[in-house]
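Table S2 (text version). Query chain:
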Amino acid sequence: MRQCYFSNRQYVYLATDYETAVKVGMRYGKSVVLNIDSQKMQEDGCKFYQAENNIWLTLAVPPAYINVYK
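Corresponding structure-token output:
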């Protein structure tokens, strides 16, 4: 099982599709979209919470689950 790291400060916001990720990211400058292996994270015991507008939240994303979207 991979370790999921927790932060007391804020959640990581995850979009369900590329277009939403780009749109939200552009609010803060140039977007860089990362592909998160959320299925593997969940299998490894990380928790997710559903927010509004097809956004999911998690406390942290360990580097092993992150890839640059191509």
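Notes on Table S2: The chain has one domain: 12-68. The first strand starts at residue 12 and ends at 15.
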